[in-house]
Amino acid sequence: MTVRIKNYARQVIAQIEEATNEGLNAAASFYVVKCREAVSRRVFPRSRPGEPPRKETGWGQKHIRYTRAIGKTQGARVGIDISEIGPHGKTALYMIMLELGTRLIKRRPWLVATLLRWLKQIGEVAVARSKAKLAGAA
Length: 138
Description:
By secondary structure, this protein is mostly helical.
C-alpha cells in the first residue's frame, strides 16, 4: 500500500497573500476617504494653525490618493499625488506644505492627524476584509 501526501502550502500562502492585499487595499481606501473628509470643509472662515486646511477649489482634496508598494515588501502609501499639473500650472504640492508647515505657513496637519484619529478603524477594516476574503476562499 502506497501513501501519498499532498502539500498545499503554496496554495495556502497564495490565498493568505491575496487576502492580505485585499485588506491593505481596503484599509488604504478607507484612509483616503477619511483624509478627504478631513479637508472637505469650505474655506470660510479660513483654517487656523493646528486645524486641517479648508477646501477652496477641491484641487488638493482631489489629489489625496494611495499607491501600492508591490515587491519584496507589501504596503500602501497614502498622500498627495503631485504628478498632475492643473489650471495655472499648479500641482497639489501645497497640501504637503500645509501638513508640514513652512517658515511662512504654520502647520495645518491633516494626513498624520487623520491617521492617528482613525488608526484603530483602519486596522479593523484591513482585518475584516482579509478575513472575509479567506472565508470566501475556504
